[in-house]
Design a protein that fits this description.
alpha+beta, two-stranded antiparallel ribbon, 18% strand
Length: 239
């Protein structure tokens, strides 16, 4: 398809059954995509950005994309559709002075899933119980947010979604409620161990004292749709 380019997802498409990584392609944003991007806010982010992904990604149902692959796509689109460099406000831990630095998104390291990753992934919990886990995807995230609106068990529901079992989701949730904290920590650790996507920790040099340190780049809505100061700095005439 015209305008679509191959993309090397950090998951290597290993979590996706029947998907060939060479078939997954992407294009930069167009005006039709900005219709949805302009409406994105922290409340509707999941649904609105899924609509955008359905336009710009081919070769896979976007609902199945892991959260790591989605973040990678967000950064890819930011670079290829809008801007390669962002401004980051920070305070140096050496000289304790506040400053603003440029961060080149193109040099962020990418963490990939190991070649031998497969799911469901068997994990033995400290209690001796065996569980089979999978990575969460966009469809899960939308379901989790809906559940959180009506229940205070959203925290556990997230991990219940990642357990592969013949039991329904409410049975899995009930098991997690009575599970020991070490067992739950083991399940949480699975998701940490197999994080994949852009490494949002990067090194910067303080413009005041010259010392280098590692900082975390927080997720910002202007990665998706630059407005205000970000828009003026990147595209404005009065720089």
């Amino acid at each position: 398809m015209e305008g679509y380019l191959p993309i090397n997802l950090p998951s290597k498409c290993l979590p996706y059954e029947g998907i060939n990584s060479s078939d997954v392609k992407i294009r930069a944003y167009q005006g039709r995509d900005e219709i949805f991007l302009a409406e994105i806010n922290p409340i509707n982010l999941e649904q609105k950005f899924l609509q955008v992904l359905q336009n710009v990604v081919t070769g896979i149902d976007p609902k199945l994309l892991t959260l790591g692959d989605r973040l990678y796509i967000i950064i890819w689109e930011c670079i290829n559709s809008y801007m390669e460099t962002i401004k980051l406000k920070t305070m140096c831990s050496y000289c304790l002075q506040k400053s603003e630095v440029d961060v080149d998104l193109r040099v962020l390291e990418v963490i990939n899933l190991p070649d031998d990753f497969k799911q469901p992934y068997e994990v033995k919990l400290p209690s001796g119980k065996i569980v089979h886990l999978r990575l969460l995807n966009i469809e899960d995230e939308i379901d989790i947010l809906k559940f959180e609106k009506n229940s205070d068990l959203g925290y556990l529901y997230r991990y219940a979604k990642s357990i592969v079992s013949d039991k329904d989701i409410l049975e899995r949730l009930k098991e997690l409620e009575s599970m020991g904290s070490k067992d739950i920590a083991k399940i949480r650790a699975f998701h940490e161990d197999y994080y994949h996507g852009p490494d949002m920790n990067t090194k910067i040099k303080c413009p005041k004292c010259g010392e280098e340190e590692e900082v975390n780049i927080p997720f910002r809505l202007d990665f998706l749709f630059p407005i205000g100061e970000t828009l003026r700095r990147t595209f404005g005439e009065r720089l």
